[in-house]
Amino acid sequence: MITRVYGRKISMFLGGLAFLIGAILNGVAMNIAVLIIGRLLLGVGVGFANQSVPVYLSEMAPAKIRGALNIGFQMAITIGILGANFVNYGTARIEGGWGWRVSLALAGVPAILMTIGSLFLPDTPNSIMERGHHEEAKKMLQKIRGTENVDHEFRDLVQASEAAKKVDHPWRNILEPRYRPQLVICFLVPFFQQLTGINVIMFYAPVLFKTLGFGDDASLMSSAITGVANVVATVVSIVSVDRFGRRGLFLEGGTQMIICQIAVGALIGVNFGVIGEGSFSKVEADLLLTLICLYVAAFAWSWDPLGWLVPSEICPLEIRSAGQVINVSVNMFFTFIIAQGFLSMLCSMKFGLFFFFGGFVVVMTIFIFFLLPETKNVPIEEMNRVPIEEMNSVWKAHWFWGKYIPNEAVIARTLRNRHFCR
Asked: Which site from 208, 235, 348, 365 is most exposed, i.e. has the minimal number of CB atoms within 10 Å?
């Protein structure tokens, strides 16, 4: 609601501010209650940022580089994860038992950057138009495109805004059959993203490596190494997403994750069995770390960035905020579920845990193959003189989703476009 009514910029500012206050409370916490309040505020900040930033980037970027710019959001997250790994490695060596305070308080650094940075960012033309400021929206569009000739794109933006104003209840509208593709994908993509098992690795890498026989320092360093793989693979995604498309990265990444998870599960099963007792030789430990790095890399150039990119670019303006809220809420909810259940699952399922998540990756890869059309270079509103309903044409041409898209959704805009072009 805040993102739609007040704009993406305000949402980013509020998210950064909430995160900053949460980081300060965590750093100075003298009891569990303050620590919990701080963590809740961190969650509020993450929710605001995840809801507003991908939409902001998708709306500001030209279609031909939208994927790369949007994945810049994920690139910042992976760099943050890597930095956090090294911070944890360093603060674990602080004597006196207060290193954890430094670790938690340093989360305030990116929060300050986000809070202050949002003050200097312009709002998107789409958001300005949505709030009724047509001339201001056109000037902003000319500014970010670097040209006065934005009539075609601006015309389509006006049409999209007029359509959005007719929607009083985006939550009700997104349930209509014509938006069924967006609803399903905005729900299932973040759901599947968490069921890859990536948070098992990223949240609990030190615990996992320590459980498998790595020492304290070795487990922290191993998690830092996986963080490096995460960053490097995200760069690969930035370079390739607008060249090879979303589907290609999804399918390749899913296949690579399946192979790695089966191999990791088998390696742990052979050495530890169902009892959970055993050890790795140095060669086996190095092989395990390599497989996990390959798994993290596959996720980092496929499901990680695309899980945010695709939902942010498929929704028309009238349901865009609702679609992104669904995406973020589903993602955060299942992040919580996996985080709470991982240790119990590891103790009970042992090496079978990797087969469990591997099975979900098989399902989600099949889902992408059959049900996600390619969205590369398909505009948000009107980019490169191609109307937003080209996305409707994509859905209409799909073997499954086509039955949900009414003919007038494609024909009406085509007729309007011909009228404007005369």
From this structure: 348
Helix boundaries (H) for 195-281: 198-211, 216-244, 246-272
Return the C-alpha torsion angle 9, 15, 21, 24, nearest 10: -110
DSSP state of 293: H
For residue 292, what is the DSSP state?
H
Predicted local confidence at residue 23, as pLDDT? 96
**Cα 380 from chain centre:** 18
**How far is it, in rounded angstroms, from Cα 257 to Cα 292?**
9
220 contacts: CB under 8 Å, gap ≥ 6: 85, 88, 89, 92, 206
Token digits of residue 182: 């967006």
Say if residues 241 and 309 touch (Cβ distance below 8 Å).
yes
- CA dist., res. 372 & res. 196, Å (int): 18
Residue 281 pLDDT: 82
Residue (of 129, 150, 153) closest to 318 by Cα position: 129
User: Which pLDDT does position 30 carry in this prediction?
Assistant: 92
Token digits of residue 102: 């430094």
- What is the pLDDT at residue 74? 84
H/E element, 386:
strand 386-387
Give Cα separations from 88 to 74, 94, 231, 393 (angstroms): 21, 10, 17, 49
Q: Which amino acid does the sequence have at 198?
A: I
pLDDT at position 383, please? 34
As a whole number of angstroms, the distance between CA 170 and CA 173 comes to 5
Mean pLDDT by 10 residues, the chain (422 residues): 77 94 95 94 91 86 82 88 83 85 93 94 87 88 87 80 73 89 95 88 67 66 80 92 92 95 90 78 83 92 92 82 89 88 81 91 96 80 41 83 82 50 48
Q: If you count DSSP H runs as helices and E runs as strands, how many of each does the chain have, helices first?
A: 20, 2
CB atoms within 10 A of CB 363: 11
